[in-house]
TrEMBL record:
This is Tyrosine phenol-lyase. Its EC number is 4.1.99.2. InterPro entries: ArAA_b-elim_lyase/Thr_aldolase (IPR001597), Beta-eliminating_lyase (IPR011166), PyrdxlP-dep_Trfase (IPR015424), PyrdxlP-dep_Trfase_major (IPR015421), PyrdxlP-dep_Trfase_small (IPR015422), Tryptophanase_CS (IPR018176), Tyr_phenol_ly (IPR013441). PROSITE patterns: BETA_ELIM_LYASE (PS00853). Its cofactor is pyridoxal 5'-phosphate. SUPFAM superfamilies: PLP-dependent transferases.
Amino acid sequence: MNRKYMAEPYKIKVVEPIAMSTQEERTAAIKRAGYNTFLLKSKEVYIDLLTDSGTSAMSDNQWAGMQIGDEAYAGSINFYHLEEAVRELYGFKYVVPTHQGRGAENILSKIAIKPGDYVPGNMYFTTTRAHQEMAGATFRDIIIDEAHDPQSEHPFKGNIDLNKLQALIDEVGAERIPYICLAVTVNLAGGQPVSMQNMREVKQLASKYGIKVMFDATRCIENAFFIKEREEGYQDKSIREIVKEMFSYADGATMSGKKDCLVNIGGFLALNDEELYQKATQLVVVYEGMPSYGGLAGRDMEAMARGMYESVDYYYIKHRVEQVRYLGERLIEAGVPIVKPIGGHAVFLDARAFLPHIPQDQFPAQMLAAKLYEISGVRSMERGIVSAGRNKEGQHHFPKLELVRLTIPRRVYTYAHMDVVADAVIELYKQRDSIPGLKMVYEPPVLRFFTARFEPLK
């Protein structure tokens, strides 16, 4: 089939050879890894779609910036460049650098949550919920119902259900809700965006009760692109204008710079409240470093500041989203079940529909990711019952979505690589009836998906 796609809005200056392996070698490798793709060595992987976190290719401008890293222990010039970028592009008053997004999640949870609180959000994310729960809070999912339906074509499946939010306020009281955690986009729903209207309405309702709104801003640029593409009144707005308005409906944000800031390490907590900021600067010294470096080298802050400006370029983000969409559309044409609409950072295989003969407690998504690696060398990751973990009673959480995430790093792979991935998934779909389930043979107490080990059922 003759396919047309947008050419890369960049040229390749440096190349990195990638490993080729035989299926026999991969069968041995995935067995050694306990059928957990996180435990594979990178040298054993051909096309690495495990995550888009910290796996982007930096630009020549970012690499040049790293050469002017000011590694002063306090008051680095690169911190002020980062602070300026956050204020100009996102509109927040205060910036606390962290080594990555989960460092910001940890600090926010400790300064804002008290035991017995509830934190509502538009679907959980693994580390975010873990930090909230360790601080003594209970997470409550208030995303719209369509987000749990992989076949729903709702254009903004990341939206918060205002009725669910109001019901929680009525149930527990506003004083027990320190903030609403609003992710833009929603990773575990399939990279689904939140509409500007929903952000505005959430902020209005929260303000009525004195509740803060904190964005998980990790993929905010992708969210802005979907608003420009899908929401009435935004087609003629620039990505920069849309991003600025988005954050006007937030009191703060946690940011993993390893995604939409186009760097390999780094993040920050951004705030408007001076009292919260002062508390954050006290804790960042304990967990990260000085408030003007927060666990980062000066060169990393410089690269992140420059990456933030690059990320709001329309042609960059258009190519990024369309490359993901290309892979998803190839799979849809072949009848492979995926989450719709196709998200901004990944294509999510619907493991329930792909492997309907495997019960959820036999980890179909985990096995699907393992088998995809075995037949092709493509590394993906499970986003289902293993990632969901266990409740306070020790029972599995059983999420409605049982997914495998094919996550596309930014500015790294070509459309030819996407064709290799698509061909491998389609071939595996033809073999789906012969794929068995798994049993878990090792499980850590927290965030088990990183290091759990499995064996195939006979």
